[in-house]
Amino acid sequence: MPALEQLEVEFTKAWADPGFHQELDDLLRDFVGRPTPVYRAARLSDRLGIDLYLKREDLAHTGAHKINNTMGQALLTKRMGKRRVIAETGAGQHGVATATACALLGQECVVYMGEKDIERQALNVHRMRMLGTEVRPVTSGAGTLKDAVSAAMRDWVSSVDGTHYIIGSVVGPHPFPWMVRELQKVIGEELLEQMDGSSPHRPVPDVIVACVGGGSNAMGVFYPYAGSGVDLVGVEAAGFGLESGHHGASLVAGSPGVIHGSMTYLLQDDQGQILEAHSISAGLDYPGVGPEHSYFKDHGMVRYVSITDEEAVEAVHLLASIEGIIPALESAHALAWITKEAKSLEGKTVVLNLSGRGDKDVQQIVDAE
Amino acid sequence: MSRERLTELFAECRAEGRAALMPYMTVGLPSPEESVQLFVAMAEAGADGFEVGIPYADPLMDGPTIQAAGERALAAGSGVEVGLDLLGQIVTQTGKPCVVMTYVNPILRMGIEVFADRVAGAGASGVIVADLPVDEADVFIEAFEARGIGLVLFVAPTTTEQRLSRVLKADPPFVYGVAELGVTGVRTTASSHIPSLVSRVRRHSEVPVVAGVGISTPDQARAAASDADGVIVGSALVRGVLLANDVGEAEELLRIAIGDLARAVRPPR
Question: Is B57 in Cβ contact with A274 (below 8 Å)?
């Protein structure tokens, strides 16, 4: 608890400091490549009968939105005088983004990763190691993201003096969900400027769609639009199908409880044991979700839906074949929902937050086929 | 008023100039049917009370040994319901004060009031909720106190003075003094934090301080017992149970270990 209180104070001060913002903004522009473009997917728009735009977070350095958060938290680590960073990772994108920030800033970095995820995301494991990070396999539980978060938290309680825990999503105890949201909302803030209605090429979106695991890319793009009247849709992993019980749809099919220090919707049994999630996409394979998403759900501010493994894989192929973009399996869930709902979206301006690129998933998809 | 049984225990131990030995054990090992006899064996060997661990799928405060114990117990059919049923038998058959150790989610799922009824109905004296900070504890304390049981709160070497005063204001039946930063599990060295933790609490209050986390050997227990009112040993005992080939062997290992620890928490004659 004192570590969390200290972190809240430190981030509050940093976030109010123009010098901190200057340093972060320079890195985001020159190192990460922000702002990321918005691209109108013309062929797919024609096919679906909607006006579809992609917010290209896949073009951010390291290939996903995760770096927005890790650059900020790595700078904060430096500001706090800590020299060691730990992180958890599911798909490996947050691990790579953390390893990258730490390499840049000369920080020691240890990433916890479930052994099942190490297997299905081998490319990202190699990338992390090349960046000088130690990847520690987590063998407890199902060996996925939940177990990696738990392992990182267990490390942190004994190492808190010199170590900062860079959590990868809008989950965990306060101040993490707030801090990560603040660092990710740059996505939505850019989009507000890029699609401000000032010309026919920059229409104001009717609908914004993003995938939700822990929910950081969705929170990043939704937050600046919350309450604006734009239809916000969060897409969770339905895995083998909601009725199979093997999925990661905490908001759609879960119930309120406490996981990793926050009260939120989660997957649990009737005695309050946390259940293992399932998704083909390691980044959505988490039984909880950021607590602010739970708030959005309860207040009807965002619609939450779900997409199966199979539908997501189809969407990867679709985008690759007609737009020349291989999306991450996570982001493909959001696209799959758009294609499925194309009829009800007809004529609308739809933005897909393309949270990551799919290089990491190619081997897994090929193996499965 | 089962909370008073803890009060009596610590008063008795203080009068005898020793610390209370309060082992932790995951309930439902090696199976739900064979679990209670392990507690009985420990009571016979000199345990003064118990921390009865409800198996949980995601025990954030626990190290590899108690994680493995939880997984094993769940697989053997234990859980929250079974654990609370067995709790009543443990209290009755050992005659020792028991505190339940669990995490916040199973309590919320059952409902705080229902959970409190079950714990009080089992005759237990208190509850430890590993992931419940004092900031969120009021509603739990209220439900527990109404039923004569207490909520045990944590004090760690990193706890600030401000937080310590909130913990003491909440009037716990005892304070769980975290001897080592980090998760539960065996450490090779004795904790150096206990004396300062105890004296920090003593400056404000006479509430008993029970040391736990990282205490496994008689030497470590002896060191902790010279300052603390009680000592919790968990992973070292659980490890024996996990390694034992059958319940008879588990019982034997526990009797030996508890016998040594019970001598260690008493001053040398």
Answer: yes
